[in-house]
């Protein structure tokens, strides 16, 4: 009896403690995110008045890179990646200067046409504020890490306008194949409170319930599964392009801000060659895809290129909004090619490419419900899981830690960061069916090569 009372008392106090802390974090993060989103809106409206505003991209990338290099190096690239890195390597300790520097650099980047998203700065707002609060309260490493994760969830929930999916995304994105269940409760509280705080300050969100979802049929289900494979391949291509562009940047032995000049100039030339459609957030194109309008079937490839250049060469911002663009337009292309409902598969593609690129199938599936309604949920969930499996052990967030392999037939070391996967040996398990089949092919190949040598 005493043991039961003790256990319940501790749990009650713990719930009360984290409810209070998560509420405080949610209020601060929601309010700060609202200020950032308003400032970003003003910035894009001011520059959008001029026809050739994007010509200033080299100067914008130069200034963004210069500011980050000397004031807050941790704010480089797409912010979510740096937050994940801070959680895993520094128990959530974040330089307070990261928050204002990231906000300013992102506003400069996106306002002048850089292809980046707005969720990265919001994740860093949440993590930075939570880190400061943890320092003031003198939290130990475990509690600070927990509170910082709450801040990340609040940032995602507030910027997406999806309190449940955003909260889970903040927890799910840290590990591939794993969830931190002890952080779920405060993350939900922080996400919901942050979303409500931003809404009260006048922030509006994009929600577009699908007007029509076809009746279930075995043929439709097969097509959804095939679309999941396609979206996984799109996510794979984007991940690899981001990696190659980052490698190209590292090969250039020059001062970092000069690389910003090169990246900005490259985007200006690409705009004149192709289109302005790939600049900025691209919300109009996302809306067009979700409304069922026909788009160029290769438009998603252009967004991949613009985003990889922006985030590798001096630009600052998030990566999820570009992923939404890539997913919605690739879904639009898939539907047009196979004669399917364009709006439905654009919506599925939007969340499925996110699931594959970020390794977050659960939060992406829930996001489909919050954004597009429950009718599309079963199809979106299947496509998200397949896309997640198709990308293999790679991610747009190199600091993610592998908790579970994506197939029992594959042997790969767990507990390592995704950026180390290329240097690790990934091989099929010999006792699995897939492993046996691959071994047969290998033996046949070796026999054929011996025959040729004879």
Keyword list:
two-stranded antiparallel sheet; 4 strands; two-stranded parallel sheet; single chain; 3 domains; mainly alpha; Clc chloride channel; 17 helices; 454 residues
Descriptive report:
The chain has 454 residues and is an all-alpha fold. The chain folds into three domains: 190 residues, Clc chloride channel (Orthogonal Bundle); 173 residues, Clc chloride channel (Orthogonal Bundle); 44 residues, no CATH class. The protein is 68% helix and 2% strand. The chain is built from 17 helices and four strands. The protein has a two-stranded parallel ribbon. A two-stranded antiparallel ribbon has the order 3-4. The model has no long low-confidence stretch (mean pLDDT 88).
The radius of gyration over CA amounts to 23 Å
CATH homologous superfamily designation of the largest domain: Clc chloride channel
Shape: globular
Question: What is the CATH topology of the largest domain?
Answer: Clc chloride channel
Task: Count the DSSP helices.
Answer: 17
Q: What's the CATH first level of the largest domain? A: Mainly Alpha
How many runs of DSSP E, i.e. beta strands?
Answer: 4
Helix content: 55-70%
Low-confidence stretches: none
The ordered string of helix (H) and strand (E) elements is HHHHHHHEHHHHHHHHHEEEH
Structure class:
mainly alpha
Major sheet details:
2 strands, parallel
Strand content: under 5%
First-residue to last-residue Cα separation: 81 Å
User: What integer is the average pLDDT?
Assistant: 88
Tell me the domain tally.
Answer: 3
């Amino acid at each position: 009896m005493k043991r039961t009372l003790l256990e319940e008392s501790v749990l009650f106090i713990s719930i009360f403690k984290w409810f209070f802390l998560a509420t405080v974090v949610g209020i601060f993060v929601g309010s700060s995110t609202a200020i950032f989103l308003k400032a970003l809106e003003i910035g894009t409206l001011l520059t959008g008045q001029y026809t050739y505003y994007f010509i200033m991209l080299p100067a914008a990338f130069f200034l963004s890179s210069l500011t980050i290099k000397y004031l807050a190096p941790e704010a480089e690239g797409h912010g979510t990646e740096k937050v994940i890195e801070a959680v895993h390597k520094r128990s959530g300790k974040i330089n307070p200067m990261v928050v204002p520097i990231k906000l300013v650099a992102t506003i400069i980047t996106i306002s002048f046409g850089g292809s980046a998203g707005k969720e990265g700065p919001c994740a860093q707002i949440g993590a930075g504020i939570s880190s400061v609060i943890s320092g003031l309260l003198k939290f130990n490493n475990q509690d600070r890490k927990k509170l910082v994760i709450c801040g990340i969830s609040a940032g995602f929930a507030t910027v997406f306008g999806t309190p449940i999916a955003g909260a889970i995304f903040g927890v799910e994105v840290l590990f591939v194949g794993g969830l931190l269940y002890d952080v779920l409760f405060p993350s939900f509280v922080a996400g919901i409170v942050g979303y409500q705080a931003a809404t009260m300050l006048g922030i509006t969100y994009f929600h577009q319930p699908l007007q029509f979802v076809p009746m279930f049929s075995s043929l439709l289900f097969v097509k959804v599964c095939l679309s999941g494979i396609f979206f996984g391949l799109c996510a794979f291509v984007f991940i690899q392009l981001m990696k190659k562009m980052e490698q190209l940047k590292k090969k250039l032995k020059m001062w970092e801000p000069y690389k910003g000049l090169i990246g900005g100039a490259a985007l200006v030339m690409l705009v004149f060659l192709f289109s302005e459609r790939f600049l900025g957030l691209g919300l109009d194109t996302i809306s067009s895809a979700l409304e069922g309008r026909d788009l160029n079937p290769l438009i998603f490839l252009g967004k991949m290129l613009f985003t990889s250049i922006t985030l590798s060469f001096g630009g600052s911002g998030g990566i999820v909004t570009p992923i939404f663009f890539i997913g919605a337009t690739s879904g639009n292309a898939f539907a047009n090619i196979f004669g399917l409902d364009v709006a439905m598969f654009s919506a599925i593609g939007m969340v499925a490419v996110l699931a594959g690129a970020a390794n977050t199938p659960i939060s992406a599936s829930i996001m489909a419900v919050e954004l597009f309604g429950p009718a599309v949920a079963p199809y979106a969930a299947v496509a998200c899981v397949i896309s997640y499996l198709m990308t293999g052990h790679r991610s747009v967030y190199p600091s993610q830690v592998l908790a579970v392999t994506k197939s029992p037939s594959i042997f790969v070391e767990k507990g390592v960061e995704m950026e180390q996967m290329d240097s690790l040996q990934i091989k099929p398990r010999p006792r699995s069916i897939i492993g046996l089949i691959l071994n047969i092919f290998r033996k046949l190949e070796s026999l054929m090569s011996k025959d040729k040598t004879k």
